Structures are given as C-alpha cells and as structure tokens.
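Workshop exercise sheet. Pairs work together: one partner reads the sequence aloud, the other fills in the structure field after running the prediction. Swap roles for the next sheet.
Pair: D.N. / O.F.
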Amino acid sequence: MDIHHLRVFTSVYKRKSFSKAAEELHLTQPTVSDHIKALEEELNCRLFDRLSRKIIPTREAEILFIHASEIIERLTHLREAVGSLKKEVAGELIIGASTIPGTYLLPRAIAGFRTEFPAVFFQIIVSDSREIMEKMLDHELLLGIVGTRASHKDLHSHALLQDELIVVAAPSLVRQQSMALRELIGLPMVLREEGSGTRKEMEKNLEGKGISLDNLNVAGYFSSTDAVKQAVKAGMGISILSRFSVQEELKHRTLREVKVAGLEMKRHFYVLTHRKRSLPLLYSVFLENLKISPAITAS
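Structure field:
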C-alpha cells in the first residue's frame, strides 16, 4: 500500500473535501481523485459517498483513517530515528577486500552508502583472499570481503553474493565459443597467484573433474586480475576469471567467453568477521546496507 495514497486519504477525510485536500497537499484535484480511486480499488470498497457538493466518509473510511493515521505517525517517528542514526554513523570504515569485490563491487556499494551517510570515510585495502584473512586473524582488520570461505575457526564467513568463474580467451587465440575439457587442458593458461580466492576456487572445481594444476599447461602467474586480462588479450594464453571482472571486456569483445562442456564453476563472495571481535555501529550499519545495495542485489 502506497504511503502517498494514505496521506492524500487522511487529508480528504479530515477536510471532507477533495479541493481543500488538493490545496493543502499542493496537488491538482484530479491527482487527489486518482489517489483515492487507487486506494478504493486496492481495498475493494468505496471510501467516500459523493452527495452533491459534499463527501461523506463510509464506515470503511472511518476504519482506514484510524490505521492510516497510525502508519503515518510511525513513519514520522521512523524517519526521525533514522535521521538521528545518520548523525551517529560517522568516522573511518576500513575494509579488507580481495581483488574482485574490492575492484568491481565495493566502489558502487560505497558510493550509494555515502549518499545516505556522507560523514563516513572509507579505506579499502585490496589484496588476495589469504592475506585479508591473515590481517583479520592478526586483528589488523575488523571486516573482510573475499572470494573464498574462511577455514579458520575464529573467522565467520557469511555468503554475500554468488559469482561464476568462466574461461576467457583472446578472440584471435580461440575462435570457437565452446570446447571439450581435454582441449582446455592442452591450451596455455595464465592464472592468478597462489593465495587468490579465484585461483583457489578454480583449483577446487577442476579437482572435482579429476584435474590438478600439474595437468594444466600453465604459461605464467600474475598477482592481479588486470595483469591476467592483459596477458590473455595479448594472446599469452586463456584464463579462468570471475565473470564480474570481465564484463566490460566481454561487452566490447576484447575477450571471448568459452564454454567448456561439463564445467560449471560457481562460488560465493563472503563477508568475514572475527568471532571474538564486536563490530562498531558504523560497521554494522554498513553491512546491513550492503545486503540491500543495488551493487549487490542487481549483480
């Protein structure tokens, strides 16, 4: 039920006039009528009887007025409470993030958060998943977002968002859009370094197919996703990367996705917290907003 419909309804109810309600709310009279009509259709009842120049509220309108007034009052209190909270949410928020969330997800989420809480200053430390976990265990970080689940008992992993690892290649190197697993093994590959969540999840998925790193034709390792992408574009080899990290390249066709029969690699990004540390209000508010951020929900 639209809160704007309720505000218009309560004004009409109090003033017993569509025109006076329109004047009070700075709306046109047809707009007021549209709001009331929408409410009547939603509730499947008549709210006002029109008698010549008078309007008389029905019994249903009397009941609705009581509840609508309570809803509007509670919403007013809610806005006041949120306004007070915004004044309290201020200061520096330090997040450790692995390459993909730190580069491709967090910037948009943070930009949205700061429109609501402009007094928050962010410091994002981007490294591989293993190093972020080590920093959390050493109490250098309170919050981490990484591409693989933490195995240490002191770290809690909360799934945030699903990702997919895909095979990518330069169009000049691989012309087909699909291949068999045995073909993948024979091609030169460019991979992330040990400690990367992307690499760990890739190895886990390939091991499920009976393929170890030793079976692959590895041409080189790089410590950043951007470096891997540049090597692949240059024709050094194919790679397995997060779909989030190659969206622009796929869109502009500088890289090609290659489907591999029987190989589907899904993983999650995880929010990491330390089980023995409590989060300040600033961090808790950010996490609640992160779950509903368009950067996350629309991805």
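Discussion prompt: The chain has three domains: 3-87, 91-160+268-297, 164-266. What would you look at next?
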